[in-house]
């Protein structure tokens, strides 16, 4: 077991790097909140830098944290940091541990001091879908997404499957904006969906702020992503899919303090978890959620906490009618097939090439 309680505590300096502002109501804020949560460990010293682009700039930031701040553990949190930047700098500093959010570590190819951690946020989106499917009056849901990469497609699909579990008649309209932070396109997409009669919106972009605020202004219900956006939608917020990075960072810091590392095999190179492992949580039910919707959400949540709910099982078709999971086949959350997802499930309106 890689999780461990530390005994003799020596100070560890841990660096956090974010691609955007740490108060973005989204991806970066979720990680920044995780860093703040580490303050409960008095032997952890943290340094952080925000607004670091996915260029050689992040290599300079990593080197500075190691050489000037004495960081021996780094959490560079943006998707584009991994290859080539983390892989390059990790070779220069073989004693420093680099943990990347979401990268796919390849055994024997990538440096031994590199690891990947991630939460199955799609479990939170499944719960979002249960609430959305329970509350929609039009049976039309909307999902605004950045890019059609596997982790994004998985959230769209899980949201749709959650909604269909309580309301088989729903459809999910998806619009891809093309990048992680394009506020103008996000607002245009949200308004376009409102104009089409969609009545529940959610998203997978770095900062859901614009999408949630636009939904609230247009009188739509909404479900959050990354961290809580409840404060932005006091009327229409149903719930949200949140990362619980404090739990993940605390578990890793304690393992490192106990002498476990990526290099000595004490910490696995691929760390994944969902609601059951406390990597993911859901926002408290919002004021717009009915008692019936809450009850459905609580039932699905209990199944995920117990590990008894399988989101991806056959027979399952994509939205072109092609079978993607045959009857009798189930993919648990750790199935490698889900890490390379390249389809939208039946019920999603939109295409990966759009």
The CATH topology of the largest domain is given as: Rossmann fold
Widest β-sheet, arrangement of strands: 12-10-9-8-6-7-17
Measured between the Cα atoms of the first and last residue, the distance is 43 Å
Q: Strand count, sense and closure of the main sheet?
A: 7 strands, mixed
From the helix content, strand content and strand pairing, which structural class follows?
alpha/beta
The overall pLDDT, averaged over residues, is: 96
Structural domains: how many = 2
Share of helical residues = 25-40%
What do these coordinates show?
This protein folds into 2 domains: 137 residues, 3-Layer(aba) Sandwich (Rossmann fold); 147 residues, Rossmann fold (3-Layer(aba) Sandwich), CATH 3.40.50. Helices cover 34% and strands 21% of the residues. The chain has 10 helices and 17 strands. The longest helix is centred in the middle third of the chain and has 17 residues.
Please summarize what this structure is.
It is built from ten helices and 17 strands.
Strand and helix layout:
Layout lengths: L11 E6 L9 H11 L6 E6 L6 H12 L5 E4 L5 H11 L4 E5 L12 E6 L1 H15 L4 E6 L4 H17 L4 E6 L6 H13 L4 E5 L4 H9 L3 E6 L10 E7 L1 H13 L12 E4 L6 E3 L8 H16 L5 E2 L2 E2 L5 E3 L4 E2 L4 H4 L8 E2 L5
Parallel strand pairs: 1-2, 1-3, 3-4, 4-5, 5-11, 6-7, 6-8, 7-17, 8-9, 9-10
Antiparallel strand pairs: 10-12, 13-16, 14-15
Helix pairs in contact: 1-8, 2-3, 4-5, 4-9, 6-7
Key features of this structure:
10 helices; 34% helix; 17 strands; Rossmann fold; 354 residues; seven-stranded mixed sheet; single chain; alpha/beta; six-stranded parallel sheet; globular; 2 domains
């Amino acid at each position: 077991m890689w999780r461990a309680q530390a005994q003799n505590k020596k100070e560890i300096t841990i660096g956090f790097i974010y691609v955007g502002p740490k108060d973005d109501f989204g991806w970066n804020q979720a990680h920044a909140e995780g860093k703040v949560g580490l303050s409960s460990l008095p032997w952890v010293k943290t340094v952080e830098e925000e607004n670091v682009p996915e260029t050689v700039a992040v290599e300079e930031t990593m080197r500075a944290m190691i050489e000037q701040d004495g960081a021996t553990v780094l959490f560079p949190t943006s998707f584009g940091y991994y290859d080539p930047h983390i892989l390059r700098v990790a070779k220069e500093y073989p004693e420093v541990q680099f943990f990347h959010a979401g990268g796919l570590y390849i055994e024997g190819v990538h440096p031994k001091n590199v690891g990947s951690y991630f939460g199955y946020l799609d479990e939170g989106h499944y719960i979002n879908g249960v609430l959305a499917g329970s509350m929609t009056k039009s049976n039309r849901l909307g999902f605004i997404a950045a890019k059609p990469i596997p982790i994004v497609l998985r959230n769209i699909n899980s949201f749709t499957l959650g909604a269909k579990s309580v309301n088989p008649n729903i459809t999910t309209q998806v619009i891809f904006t093309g990048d992680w932070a394009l506020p103008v396109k996000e607002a245009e997409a949200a308004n376009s969906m409102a104009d089409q009669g969609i009545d529940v919106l959610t998203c997978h972009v770095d900062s859901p702020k614009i999408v949630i605020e636009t939904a609230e202004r247009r009188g739509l219900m909404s479900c959050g992503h990354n961290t809580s956006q409840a404060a932005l939608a006091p009327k229409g917020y149903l719930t949200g899919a949140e990362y619980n990075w404090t739990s993940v960072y605390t578990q890793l810091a304690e393992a490192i303090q106990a002498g476990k590392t990526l290099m000595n095999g004490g910490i696995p190179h691929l760390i994944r978890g969902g609601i059951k492992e406390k990597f993911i949580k859901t926002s408290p039910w919002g004021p717009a959620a009915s008692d019936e919707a809450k009850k459905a959400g609580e039932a699905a949540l209990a199944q995920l906490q117990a590990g008894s709910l399988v989101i991806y099982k056959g027979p399952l078709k994509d939205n072109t009618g092609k079978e993607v999971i045959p009857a009798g086949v189930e993919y648990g959350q750790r199935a490698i097939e889900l890490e390379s997802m390249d389809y939208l499930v039946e019920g999603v309106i939109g295409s990966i090439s759009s």
